[in-house]
Design brief:
It comes from Neorhizobium huautlense. The protein is mainly alpha-helical and 294 residues long. 78% of the residues lie in helices and 2% in strands. Strands 1-2 form a two-stranded antiparallel sheet. The chain starts with a helix and ends with a helix.
């Protein structure tokens, strides 16, 4: 038996060694795209905002654009509304999507299938169509106002062109991905664990808190990380549904570049947004590293 193992080992090692260049080639393609499309533009933007050319043509270290951003009240208000929108959307997504994922995981029949189809539907609706539907339904003189007027009720105060407009649109737009990630994490919760906890007298809250939540904590962190990164850098929905002032960083960058003709200022705003996204991304990387370690 030992002779057979000794004879079989070299071919297996040779096979793994022969496959290694092919595997590295497959990994090299996405790594190259990330370097080309993400890392290099970020490095270029950072270098162009800290190494500036003065009036005499001399290049030197200059942080004046960052000093202006963090001393300008309008820029800080835009950063604050971006952070507020991101945090509110993250909390609302967790409050809305976690019960949906729990229902889909532990329910059977046709109704959960219909609920899942409705939860995933926003994934197939473009943001521009979502914004138009939002305006037609909740905007001034929209469908809600028409229905309320028909029954003699006063008009509602529309969230359109207020900070809550992008919140509603972004939450709706991010429901599918959040539900799918949470549902995938709930797949690791075996029914035997739930049944054993109920056998010893645990109620629904204790089952959720001590059995389900510890096993899906990483999935919750991953879902929130993806949502936060997408919301923080969003443009279409904040541009169409949000107020003109203060505005989120996405529309702020576009207006600074197009209307003010200030590419350095726009790149400074992009670098600041990139820095906050890195902080959010570290939670995702930490979660992945923890799972790999386990």
């Amino acid at each position: 038996m030992s002779e057979f193992v000794e004879r079989a080992a070299p071919p297996l090692a040779e096979t793994a060694a022969s496959r290694r260049p092919f595997g590295l080639l497959l990994v090299a393609i996405p790594v190259f795209l990330v370097i080309w499309l993400v890392i290099w533009p970020a490095i270029n933007a950072i270098s162009r905002t800290i190494w500036r050319v003065d009036a005499d043509g001399n290049t030197g270290f200059d942080l004046s654009s960052y000093a202006f951003f963090f001393s300008d009240r309008y820029s800080l208000d835009n950063l604050a509304v971006t952070l507020w929108t991101t945090m509110v959307c993250a909390v609302l997504l967790l409050v809305i999507c976690l019960p949906i994922a729990l229902y889909l995981r532990f329910s059977q029949g046709r109704l959960p299938a219909y609920v899942q189809a409705l939860a995933i539907l926003p994934m197939f609706v473009p943001s521009i169509i979502l914004a138009f539907a939002f305006i037609r339904v909740l905007g001034p003189n929209g469908m809600i106002d028409i229905l309320l007027n028909a029954v003699g009720l006063p008009k509602i105060r529309t969230p359109y062109l207020t900070p809550w407009g992008p919140v509603i649109g972004l939450v709706w737009d991010n429901i599918p991905l959040t539900v799918l990630i949470l549902l995938s994490g709930l797949g690791s919760v075996a029914n035997q664990f739930i049944e054993a906890a109920r056998d010893v007298g645990a109620n629904a809250f204790r089952v959720f808190w001590h059995i389900i939540l510890p096993r899906i904590s990483n999935s919750i962190l991953v879902a929130l990380s993806f949502s936060v990164l997408g919301i923080f850098s969003s443009f279409t929905l904040p541009y169409l549904l949000g107020p003109a002032s203060p505005e989120m960083l996405g529309p702020f960058m576009q207006r600074t570049l197009r209307d003010l003709q200030d590419p350095i200022g726009a790149m400074t705003q992009a670098v600041v947004a990139f820095g906050f996204c890195i902080l959010f991304g570290l939670f995702y990387v930490r979660s992945v590293a923890r799972n790999r370690g386990k």
